[in-house]
Design a protein that fits this description.
The complex is a heterodimer. Chain A is of the alpha/beta class. Chain A is built from 22 helices and 18 strands. Chain A has a six-stranded parallel β-sheet, sandwiched between helices. Chain A has a six-stranded parallel β-sheet with strand order 9-8-7-10-11-12, sandwiched between helices. In chain A, strands 14-13-15-16-18-17 form a six-stranded parallel β-sheet, sandwiched between helices. In chain A, helix 3 runs parallel beside helix 5 and helix 3 packs across helix 18. The termini of chain A are far apart. Chain B has one domain: ACT domain (Alpha-Beta Plaits). Chain B has a four-stranded antiparallel β-sheet, with helices on one face. The radius of gyration of chain B is 14 Å and the shape is globular. The relative contact order of chain B is 0.31. Classes of the chains: A alpha/beta, B alpha+beta. Chains A and B meet through strand 5 and helix 13 of A and helix 1 and helix 2 of B.
Chain lengths: 549, 91
C-alpha cells in the first residue's frame, strides 16, 4: 500500500472518524486515500477554519482533533490555529502535505518549511522521510498530543513519501504513562498549609477540565467550602451557581473574586499558570498568600510565582488527598458579603439591548448549551454573565485570543457532539475573520446558532483607546460593515435583526427554538464598555468600574 | 546571571534547533556551546552556557526536559535565588 493509504489506515487505527481540512497539490495522495476510508472529511473553506474546527472538536469531545492541509499556503494558514491549540493546551494533530523530498530546500512551488515555522508553537513535530515510519510517527503524534499536558503536534508528509509503496502494517500502539502521584513530602506540606490557613482561595484553571478532574475539584470545593475563583479557561470547574463560587478573576474578573484573591493567605492553584490576564501586575498578585500549585506540567510549578508546595501529577489524586475539615467560617462569610456586594446588576438604563443580560438569559433558558466564543468584548461578557455546568460548555480562545475562533469552533463542537446544542457568540469584527465558514455550516446543514453582537466597531480596542489613549480612536470604526442579515441569507442561513430591548425575549426564543442554523444580528451602542477592568500594568486591587455593572 | 547546562539529545531532525530555539525564546542568551556526537547511540551531548534575564534556570531546565528528543538535562552550575519576580511587561 502507498504511504498515503498507510497514513489514513493509521488514523483509522487511532480511532479517528472525522478530520477537517482542505486539499491541494502536495497532499493529493492523502485525499485520494480518504475516498476509500470510513473517515469523514469535513471541508472547511479556509485552512484556518479547519484547524480551529479541529480545536473545537477536541475541546468538546476530549479526543484529539485532526486537520490537514497542503504544503505552502495551506500549511501557513494553519499556523494561527496551531498556536491557539498550543496556548490553550488542546490536543490536535495537524497533517500537512510537503513538496517531494528531492526538491525540498530548493524553494520549490508551494514549499515552505512548516516544520521550522511551527517549531515554537507545537508540542512536537515530525517530518516523515520514510513511508515505513508512518505508523510509528502517527502513533507517537497522537500519544504526544494527548498525554500529560495536551497540545498540537504537526506531521509533515512529503508527496513522494506519500506515494511510496510499503508493506508495513498500520499498527503502532503506545501506552500512556501514569500521570504520577504528588511527592509525599510536598503533599504533607500542602496539607499543613491548608490546616494553618485562615483565608484560602481555590484558583482553578483550564487544567481542571483537561485533566478530567472536574468531579474531583467540585467534590473538594463542596467538602472544604473554600471560596473558588477561576481563570477564563477554568470557568465551569464548579457550576457557576455553586454557593462558594466568586467568579472569574483578573482583568475583567468579578470584583469579589479579585478582592478575595488579594486578601487571601493561601492560594490553591489547580491547573492554572499565573497568566498575566489573571494576575495583573505579578508582584502585587495575592501579596500575602502562600501558594500550593497543582499541575501535570512540571515546568509550570514556580514558573512565575514561587510555589510553597508543588503537587505534580494527577490533579484528581492531589485533590483527593487534601484535608476538608477547615476552620474558615469567618473568611467564607467575608467572601459571601463581597459576592453579594459585587453581584452583577442587570438594570441598565435606556431601551438599548444590554448584552450581558441577554447572554445570561440565554444560558438560563438553556443550561446545557455549549457556547463557542469569539474574541473581544462579547467574549468577556460571556465569561462574566453566562452560566455553565462544565468547562467543556465554554469554548474560548483564552491564551492566544484569536479573533475568528467562534464559528469554526462551533462547527467542530457540532461535529463532535451532533446532538448537542451549540451557540457561537461573535462580534462584528470577529465574524469577518472566518466568515467563509458560514458555507461549511450550510454544506453540512449544521444547526449552529449564532449571536452576532454588532457595535459597528472593534469594541475592545476602541474601549482601550478611550480609556488609555485619550480617546484617540485609530482604525476601530467598522460602521461600513456589510448587512450581516443579508450576508447570512446569501449563504442560505436564516437570519434576523434585533435592535431594541423589547425584542430580546422573542429573539432568544427564536434563536433557541430554531431547528437549523440561525444568526441573530444584535445591534448595540458602539460606546458600550466591559466593566470592571484592571488597567494594564496595575495590580488586581485597582479595578475601574463603569456604568454598566 | 550565567548558568551551565548539559543536554543529551536524540539525533533526529529538528532536535538541536528545537532545544536552542526554546532557550532563546524563553529569554535566555546562549553565550557558548560545545557539542559532540555519539554515533553509536544516535545522541548528541551539548554543554551550553546561558545568560539569564533574571528568570529561573531551573524552570528553563524543566521546559527543555519536556522536549521529546531531549534525553537528559543537568544544570551544572547555578547561584541564583529560587525565583525572581518580574514586573509584568504584558500589554
Amino acid at each position: 500500500m502507498k504511504g498515503a493509504e498507510l497514513l489514513v489506515k493509521a488514523l483509522e487505527q487511532e480511532g479517528i472518524d472525522v478530520v477537517f481540512g482542505y486539499p491541494g497539490g502536495a497532499i493529493m495522495p492523502v485525499y485520494d486515500a480518504l475516498l476509500d476510508s470510513p473517515i469523514r472529511h469535513v471541508l472547511a473553506r479556509h485552512e484556518q477554519g479547519a484547524v480551529l474546527a479541529a480545536d473545537g472538536f477536541a475541546r468538546v469531545t476530549g479526543k484529539p482533533g485532526v486537520c490537514m492541509a497542503t504544503s505552502g499556503p495551506g500549511a501557513t494558514n494553519l499556523v494561527t490555529g496551531i498556536a491557539n491549540a498550543f496556548m490553550d493546551s488542546v490536543p490536535i494533530v495537524a497533517i500537512t502535505g510537503q513538496v517531494p523530498t528531492p526538491v525540498m530546500g530548493t524553494d520549490a512551488f508551494q514549499e515552505v518549511d512548516i516544520f521550522g515555522i511551527t517549531m515554537p508553537i507545537v508540542k512536537h513535530s515530525f517530518l516523515i522521510r520514510r513511508a515505513e515510519d508512518i505508523p510509528r510517527i502517527i502513533g507517537e503524534a497522537f500519544h504526544i498530543a494527548t498525554e500529560g499536558r495536551p497540545g498540537p503536534v504537526l506531521v509533515d508528509l512529503p508527496k513522494d513519501v506519500a506515494n511510496t509503496m510499503t508493506s508495513v502494517p498500520p499498527i503502532f500502539e503506545m501506552k500512556s504513562p501514569d500521570l504520577g502521584r504528588p511527592d509525599p513530602e510536598q503533599l504533607a506540606l500542602a496539607c499543613r498549609l491548608l490546616q494553618e490557613a485562615e483565608r484560602p482561595v481555590l484558583y482553578a484553571g483550564g487544567g481542571v477540565g483537561i485533566a478530567r478532574a472536574v468531579d474531583a475539584f467540585s467534590a473538594y470545593a463542596r467538602a472544604s467550602r473554600i471560596p473558588v475563583v477561576t481563570t477564563l479557561k477554568g470557568i465551569g470547574a464548579v457550576p457557576t451557581r455553586h454557593a462558594d463560587y466568586l467568579g472569574m478573576l483578573g482583568m475583567h474578573g468579578n470584583l469579589a473574586a479579585n478582592k478575595a484573591v488579594q486578601a487571601s493567605d493561601l492560594l490553591i492553584c489547580v491547573g492554572a499558570r499565573f497568566d498575566d490576564r489573571a494576575t495583573g501586575r505579578l508582584d502585587g498578585f495575592a501579596p500575602g498568600a502562600k501558594v500550593i500549585h497543582m499541575d501535570a506540567d512540571p515546568s509550570e510549578i514556580s514558573k512565575l510565582r514561587f510555589a510553597d508546595a508543588g503537587l505534580l501529577g494527577d490533579l484528581r489524586v492531589s485533590l483527593a488527598s487534601l484535608p476538608t475539615e477547615l476552620s474558615i467560617e469567618p473568611w467564607r462569610a467575608w467572601c459571601g458579603e463581597r459576592k453579594r456586594e459585587h453581584a452583577w446588576r442587570y438594570d441598565a438604563p435606556g431601551d438599548g439591548i444590554y448584552v450581558p443580560d441577554m447572554l445570561r438569559r440565554i444560558t438560563e433558558a438553556d443550561p446545557e448549551v455549549t457556547i463557542a466564543c469569539d474574541v473581544g468584548q462579547h467574549q468577556m461578557w460571556v465569561a462574566q454573565h453566562c452560566h455553565f455546568q462544565r468547562p467543556e460548555q465554554h469554548l474560548t480562545s483564552a491564551g492566544l485570543g484569536a479573533m475568528g475562533f467562534g464559528i469554526p469552533a462551533g462547527i467542530g463542537a457540532l461535529m463532535g457532539d451532533p446532538d448537542g446544542r451549540v451557540l457561537t457568540v461573535t462580534g462584528d469584527g470577529s465574524i469577518m475573520m472566518n466568515l467563509q465558514e458560514l458555507q461549511t455550516i450550510r454544506r453540512y446543514e449544521l444547526p449552529l446558532k449564532m449571536l452576532l453582537v454588532d457595535n459597528a466597531s472593534l469594541g475592545m480596542v476602541r474601549q482601550w483607546q478611550e480609556l488609555f489613549h485619550e480617546e484617540r480612536y485609530s482604525e476601530v470604526d467598522l460602521s461600513d460593515n456589510p448587512d450581516f442579515v443579508e450576508v447570512a441569507r446569501s449563504f442560505g442561513i436564516e437570519a434576523f435583526r434585533v435592535t431594541r430591548r423589547d425584542q430580546v425575549d422573542a429573539a432568544i426564543e427564536r434563536l433557541l427554538d430554531a431547528d437549523g442554523a440561525i444568526l441573530a444580528h444584535v445591534c448595540i451602542d458602539p460606546k458600550t464598555n466591559v466593566w470592571p477592568l484592571v488597567p494594564p500594568g496595575e495590580t488586581n486591587d485597582v479595578m475601574l468600574e463603569g456604568m454598566s455593572a | 546571571m550565567n548558568h551551565t547546562m548539559t543536554l543529551t539529545i536524540q539525533r533526529v531532525e529538528g532536535a538541536l534547533i528545537r532545544a536552542l530555539g526554546l532557550i532563546e525564546r524563553r529569554g535566555f542568551a546562549v553565550t557558548s556551546i560545545d557539542a559532540s556526537a555519539d554515533e553509536a547511540a544516535q545522541q548528541m551531548e551539548l554543554t551550553i552556557e546561558v545568560r539569564s534575564p533574571g528568570r529561573s534556570a531551573d524552570v528553563l531546565a524543566r521546559q527543555i526536559e519536556k522536549l521529546f528528543d531531549v534525553r537528559s538535562v543537568d544544570l551544572v552550575r547555578t547561584d541564583e535565588p529560587a525565583v525572581q519576580l518580574e514586573e509584568s511587561m504584558a500589554c
